[in-house]
Amino acid sequence: MQDSNSLARIPLQPANMAPPAPEFPWPAPFTSAMFLSFDVDAESAWTAKNAQHAERLVTMSYGGFEARVGTPKLLDMLRQLDLRATFFITGWSVEAHPAMAESILAAGHEIGHHGYYHLMPDPDEPFLQEELERGFEVLKRRLGVVPTGYRAPSGEFTEELRQSLVRHGITYSSSFRDDVRPYRHLLADGTRGTIELPVTASYDDWMHGLSTRFSARSIFPKEHVLSMWKDELDETRDWGAMVTTVLHPQCSGRPMRLRLLRDFLTYTKNCGDVWIATGEEIAANYIHHETAGA
């Protein structure tokens, strides 16, 4: 229950002080964009919620599906469609499933930072800096990767995290849900932050396609999700804006959801006007136009 003191401490200003996103053009001949991205959490999706889940082997098997089946199937599909994507991977997943992580890199996809244990970055979280440091260390040691992109575990953010990403040299983050175009963060002290590639909430497959005994939520049928995804994309194309996916191999790597994703990506490619790109490519396009206009 809220109390008057905590309510009085709420700042009377927008949580995000960055100006509206600039309408920079997309590379010709494209007039809109899709940031195609996946979150590879594996079992850390479950242990982040409760460390005791590590001893609940069926619970852990939901995450284990990623390395055994989901990620290989998705990589095959992306190869068949000739698409590159960004895979945000937790450090724990890289350590536990090195062959899976190496296969993503070998297939030519971008690797992004997604924490270590997949712990949500809450205010005053004591593990926030450790999550960042261990994630960077594992990606470098195991894969030889220095990531330029970051996605917050469980999609949460704090001002401390926003500042830390700048110190660590991260070029872009992809966690906020407040725009349909890339923009640059503004830190609390007024200095420039990372570029934000905002997430499109409806393209989070976890919301529509994964049901476990911990949730009474039903899995949405393909027809419902495909209709919703096409409508969101078509309107975004009319706006000349961008959609960002948050796809999980333990969800979209399953047979029914893979077929859905294949159909949707095929539809997107056939539109002809959507630039399907990685985060580093979209951030580079932003920097190009930002620099040209400076």
Percentage of β-strand residues: 5-15%
Q: What spatial order of strands do you see in the largest sheet? A: 5-6-8-7
How many H/I helices? 12
Overall mean confidence score, pLDDT: 94
How far apart, in Å, are the first and last alpha carbons?
Answer: 48 Å
SSE ordering: HEEHHEHHEHEHEEEHHEHHEH
Structural class: alpha/beta
What count of structural domains? 1
What low-confidence regions span 5 or more consecutive residues with pLDDT below 50?
none
Major sheet, described briefly? Answer: 4 strands, mixed
Helical content stands at 40-55%
- CATH superfamily grouping: Glycoside hydrolase/deacetylase
**In CATH terms, what is the architecture?**
Alpha-Beta Barrel
What is the number of E strands?
A: 10
Specify the CATH class: Alpha Beta
CATH topology: TIM Barrel
Shape estimate: globular
Radius of gyration: 19 Å
Family: Belongs to the polysaccharide deacetylase family.
Pfam family, one: Polysacc_deac_1
Protein name: Chitooligosaccharide deacetylase
Organism: Acidisoma cellulosilyticum
